[in-house]
Amino acid sequence: MSRQTQAIIHADALLHNFKSLAAIAPSSQSMAVVKADAYGHGAVNVARILQHVSSQFAVAIIEEAIALRDAGISAPVVVLEGAHQAKECQMAFQHNCILVMHCEEQLQWLNNCPENQRPHIWLKVDSGMHRLGFAISDIEDMTKKYRHLLSEQTVIATHFACADDVDNGFTASQLSAFKRVADAIGLPTSVANSPATVNWPASRNAWNRLGVGVYGGAVSTANNVGVEIYPAMTLRSSILAVRTIAAGEGVGYGQTWVASKPSKIATVGIGYADGYPRHCKNKTPVMVRGKRAFLAGRVSMDMITIDVTHIDNVSVGDEVELWGQNVPIQEVAACADTIDYELMTRVSQRVPRIVKYL
Ligand SMILES: Cc1ncc(COP(=O)(O)O)c(C=O)c1O
């Protein structure tokens, strides 16, 4: 390999984060959400690392579940969007997947499956997010009408819109609306994502679905959440050129950064084609030689330029951390007007994922 651009995946952080989040909900079972290639960390990598602590996994679509099966992961997989087409019901059965049913069309597809080839299902309730799920007013009738499709593994699930925000009362109102119908139906429940697991104890039910927190993402607007989580990805690259420019010279496309004094500019081998956000503004932090340096000029497709005037001895080949232990991904996300979830999931396939086991 020539270019030193890599996403280092920290197995110890993944294990620590999952176990810590699971430990604050000892009466629940917890599953790792590994959709979108495990939020960019590599679904097969992550499932292999977590398979002894996460007894099930969750993905968004059946293709993601089948990719886990092809890699030899045997734990049950919950498919959070359920079937997009009727044929996926039988695929789910063949691959030991649990389909989340969020609308009556899906239940009819399942009903049309041969009785001995129906996968286990969960039922999703729309408790206020208004994205997927049966209406609160319909779910009891649906459960009665399709009782023959339920099994001992059926769970009633819902999803929160604002669980990271400890000051937002909407989560409590979603919870109480959901609890009313779930109590009436009497099946096990799954409510909490990782922010809810941390912030809303009442949401820790039979199954918690742990996503971003496992990867070291932000789970709470509160400062002290009582659980330590660490970044599971370090995105790093290296310097491929260093030059000195005079005051008044502009750098990069559109010359959006202009040197106010003679400046040393380093060019780094990562760009928006690798998933480093083009929207990152001038002054987005990176780490070089143990010091913070800052983006100077627009992000190009394959390169960025950083101002390293204040750092001695910067040379070609020096490592640059784009995010990780030293540069919080949330800080970079804020500089690009987005969230850590998006940055993680957008690291492109051009960037090799290197798993480190300590
Ligand atoms: C239905 C569902 N459950 C759980 C999760 C995991 O959420 P988080 O990554 O916030 O922990 C997601 C993620 O978007 C989801 O869509």
Short description:
This protein is α/β, with parallel strands linked by helices and 358 residues long. Helix content is 26%, strand content 23%.
Care to describe what's here?
The chain has helices spanning 11-23, 35-39, 43-50, 62-70, 87-94, 104-111, 139-145, 170-185, 194-199, 329-335, 340-345; strands at 6-10, 29-33, 57-59, 77-79, 97-101, 121-126, 134-135, 156-157, 189-190, 207-210, 233-245, 250-251, 257-258, 263-268, 285-288, 291-295, 304-307, 319-323, 353-356. The protein contains 11 helices and 19 strands. The chain folds into 2 domains: 11-215, TIM Barrel; 233-356, Lyase, Ornithine Decarboxylase, Chain A, domain 1, CATH 2.40.37. The longest helix has 16 residues, at 170-185. Strand 15 and strand 16 (291-295) form a beta hairpin. The strands form 3 sheets. Strands 2, 3, 4, 5, 6, 7, 8, 9 and 10 form a 9-stranded parallel sheet that branches. It has a 6-stranded antiparallel beta barrel with strand order 11-14-17-16-15-18. With 358 residues, it is an alpha/beta fold. The structure holds pyridoxal-5'-phosphate (PLP). Pyridoxal-5'-phosphate is lined by residues 33, 80, 159, 193-195, 209-213.
